[in-house]
Amino acid sequence: MSKALYTLTLSMLLLSGCAPKDTSVQTPEQISTLEHKSEPKIYIEEKDTKESNERKTEVIDGVALPKREQIVRIAMSYLGKRDGRDCSGFVNLVNVKTGQPFYGEKELSESFDNARKSRAMYNLMRKKGDAFDNKLPRIGDLVFFEDTERKKTKVKTKVAENITHVGIVTKVDADKTVEFIHHSNGKNILDYMNFALPAQTKNGEKVVNTYMKRCKSKKGEVKTECLNLAFFVAYGTF
Q: Which domain holds residue 100?
């Protein structure tokens, strides 16, 4: 091939976008696909950042769901069931089923300072700057509580917040009522809390606050020291 013909051929290749690829450049990471027992799922991921983590979409029955809606959908699929066995086990189940948006097992294992997994989750989110208590959460966030044991444990804790319970936010209403799902008394249930109405369990017919512990009270009396509000510590986001 003449030098002129070679130059012309190379120019045409460059203009058409067909020039040989530089094999030294790494290709993007492959999109991960998680399995579900009853439904096929396709996860479409962007760069590994907090913002793109929320933009990951799951295609179910032809409908693409953002990450936070995925979390709520999966969590609510276990409502009334015993899956998870305890509060942190339930959160861990949802975390795995939705592609580990809250934490990876390795980083969580490095966040224990007592025997409680819920406390380790809180430690990790606080270390990342993702724990907060001064604003409303978003659906899919975690919610942490302290000192919720029915019986006092013999094990003394030396931590500032004795985190003993965790749930997942499923809805935030305009009146600031936060609905969350958590494992309590052997199954996954919904509960509510509203800091704007701290002395009420209902606002009209709507439930705005529920109890973390049972308290003896006169009929109709609200025992604020036993509401979820009294045990709340923080929310955790991703």
A: 84-236
